[in-house]
Hints:
Oligomer: single chain
Largest sheet: 8 strands, antiparallel
Family: Belongs to the pirin family.
Strand content: over 45%
Keywords: Iron, Metal-binding
Protein name: Putative pirin-1
Helix content: under 10%
Organism: Coleophoma cylindrospora
Order of helices and strands: EEEEEEEEEEEEEEEEEEEEEEEEEH
CATH superfamily: Jelly Rolls
Number of helices: 1
Number of strands: 25
Shape: globular
Structural class: mainly beta
InterPro entries: Pirin, Pirin_C_dom, Pirin_N_dom, RmlC-like_jellyroll, RmlC_Cupin_sf
CATH class: Mainly Beta
Amino acid sequence: MTVVRGIRKAFLAVEQSEGDGARVRRSVGTPALRNFSPFLMLDHFNVQPPAGFPDHPHRGQETITYLLSGAVDHEDFAGNAGSIEKGDLQFMTAGKGIMHAEMPRASDDGSSVTGLQLWVDLPEKLKSCEPRYRDLKGSEIPTVDIDDNKVHIKVISGQSHGVDSVQELSYTPVWMLDIEIKPGGKVVQSLPQKWNAFAYTLSGNTAFGVGADKTTIGQYHNVVFEQDGDEIVAEVSADEKENGHFILIAGVPLDQKIVQYGPFVVSSQDQVYQALMDYQTHSNGFERAKNWQSEIGKRAIH
């Protein structure tokens, strides 16, 4: 007998300012949902270039960026540079220290650049690993259609209805599925037991759960599922005018303390002080930050 996961809570992600002129809807990493291990932060960003995220440091976490529209250029102090476009992903491991810039690129029609950035905690033993980047092109992501083609699933990482994607998004195992449901469609999606899981709704009205627990959730909400259970159920009523579109994310909880100070995610207060000292003195991973300035960061609006 499989057990459907209940909804622990669902809440609206309120838009706020971030970076240099950017707007984000933050749902993980707020008082409503803090340190939902292994997840530290989820931002749904909407950026009108030349706004963006100019030169800034990280330590102790990984970021997963999924672009929904437009293009983003990135550049770091190790000489890495590149771009991702609509449907692409980029995975960045900060490890012991990185300094980089992420700047949305202006489009011909002046439209904004939108996407999701998820912060994943690094296992304590890997907090001091070397920084790294990986890109995943949208064309490389396997898909599956179910329920008479009323449900379309991009299997970014994980397993869905016989389709496997073995992408290593981060050192901590994470599943990520992009699910779009037409009116009248329904999906029953299996998830690994005891993993923490949530859905972020991008558009439409989607009903999650079954029976008395079934709840219809609108756009820009984070739906946090109970840890117990084998699967989630989502459907869109046949009388809806719009498809339901959400990202389903699940990950292995880490049994470790989280101490976060801005872009530094460590395991103790002493390590926060050490991270600040290392950054200010350009040492222990931040040596290359000294006098470094990205080219793309110069596009910022300040």
